[in-house]
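Researcher: I'd like a candidate sequence for this fold, 453 residues long. If you have to choose between options at a position, lean toward the conservative one.
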């Protein structure tokens, strides 16, 4: 993420990464880059705990709403607003139409985020390498959301949604890079916890917000656009990064870039297992919850009354998610352990999905929201900081996090596609065992990580 105007600046990007006492798997920063940077504070260089205050506190206070503005968009659109709009346009083939729109957008998102990270890593400007993309991406994404509001056909909707995905992925990649760029390792737990809080509130609370715009879908898109533009611009303005105009950069190698889509389990095993664990858990979670509207309509049998219950499920899940995020982040920092908490939280998600599969009822859906919300919240509070500790190189934080973030964002936008295939073949009940199996596989993948406790 960028860093814009503030009188007292944080240490520049590469130096902050050095402060963070990055794991041994990270390559040392290039000499030509570090020679131009402000020296790290002694406490940080010595690995002492860094207090979150001053510029670091300001960064935290801006990052939380910036992340919230992005994840509320991912929470509201794929799970509520887009299915509602598809249902209004083509009610007779809503499952197939939603799968088509989602698949096209998901493919674009998969390519856009690591590409955006690579471009951001190489950007040289007086505002640093992150801020230009945060601001421009949010503005373009906002215009594309207006395009979705005006769409009256499936093809138009698919094009607009694809453009939204590309634009906001050019925001998400540099936004994610702020944590390893500028936050010391000893402070990443609180950043990850509050960042996880924002993302979980966005993902779950977005469903509530989306349901509140059920009768005014276009207005909902415009509200989401405005919120993201304001929050991301404030982040850039109040957390200014140093100019990097004079910093050298490696030439872009298309072949090397394409290789980043392959995460080698032999060269970077911990990076691979962390990616796989997140991908499996998120896919299992969103394959079910991303279909909440249609599950309530057709599996539980609520029909037109399902929209109001989507909001109720969102609120219940949010009430369970928030304390889990806080507890997970604090416990993780206190114990200095990440893997066991990720494993337990993934297992909780799987356990929650069993409930409505065994007993299809509205009460079971409420219970699922509580158990899954708590597990998913705890996972989100610990998972992000675990990711920052297994990245392969300090010189490509945004690109590597862009690849890793595919594991979080892709399942959210691809869930209707996955769900559509499952529903077509096995019916709505088939969503639950698939979600359970993927969540458990994600939990076990994390235990293959060796460099993090």
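Model: Candidate sequence:
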């Amino acid at each position: 993420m960028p860093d814009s105007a503030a009188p007292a600046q944080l240490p520049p990007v590469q130096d902050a990464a050095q402060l963070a006492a990055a794991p041994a798997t990270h390559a040392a920063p290039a000499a030509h880059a570090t020679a131009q940077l402000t020296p790290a504070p002694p406490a940080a260089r010595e690995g002492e705990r860094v207090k979150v205050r001053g510029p670091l506190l300001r960064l935290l206070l801006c990052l939380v709403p910036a992340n919230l503005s992005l994840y509320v968009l991912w929470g509201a659109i794929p799970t509520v607003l887009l299915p509602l709009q598809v249902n209004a346009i083509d009610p007779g083939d809503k499952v197939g139409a939603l799968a088509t729109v989602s698949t096209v957008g998901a493919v674009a998102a998969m390519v856009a985020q690591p590409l955006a990270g690579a471009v951001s890593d190489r950007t040289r400007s007086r505002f640093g390498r992150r801020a230009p993309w945060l601001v421009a991406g949010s503005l373009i994404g906002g215009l594309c959301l207006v395009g979705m509001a005006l769409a009256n056909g499936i093809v138009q909707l698919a094009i607009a949604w694809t453009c939204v995905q590309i634009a906001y992925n050019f925001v998400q990649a540099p936004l994610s890079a702020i944590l390893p760029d500028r936050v010391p390792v000893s402070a990443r737990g609180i950043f990850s916890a509050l960042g996880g809080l924002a993302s979980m509130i966005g993902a779950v609370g977005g469903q509530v917000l989306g349901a509140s715009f059920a009768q005014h879908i276009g207005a909902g898109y415009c509200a989401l656009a405005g919120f993201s533009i304001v929050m991301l611009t404030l982040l850039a303005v109040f957390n200014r990064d140093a100019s990097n105009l004079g910093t050298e950069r490696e030439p872009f190698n298309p072949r090397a870039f394409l290789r980043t889509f392959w995460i080698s389990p032999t060269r970077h095993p911990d990076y691979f297992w962390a990616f796989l664990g997140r991908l499996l858990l998120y896919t299992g979670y969103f394959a079910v919850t991303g279909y909440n509207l249609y599950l309530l309509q057709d599996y539980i049998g609520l029909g037109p009354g399902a929209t109001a219950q989507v909001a109720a499920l969102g609120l219940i899940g949010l009430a369970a998610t928030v304390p889990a995020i806080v507890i997970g982040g604090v416990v993780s920092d206190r114990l200095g352990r990440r893997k066991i908490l990720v494993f337990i939280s993934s297992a909780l998600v799987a356990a929650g999905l069993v409930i409505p599969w065994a007993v299809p009822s509205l009460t079971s859906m409420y219970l699922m929201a509580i158990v899954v919300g708590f597990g998913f919240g705890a996972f989100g509070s610990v998972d992000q900081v675990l990711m920052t500790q297994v990245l392969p190189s300090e010189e490509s934080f945004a690109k590597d996090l862009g690849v890793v973030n595919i594991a979080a964002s892709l399942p959210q936008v691809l869930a209707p596609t996955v769900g559509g295939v499952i529903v077509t073949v096995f019916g709505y009940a088939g969503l639950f065992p698939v979600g359970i199996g993927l969540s458990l596989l994600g939990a076990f993948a994390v235990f293959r990580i060796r460099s993090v406790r």
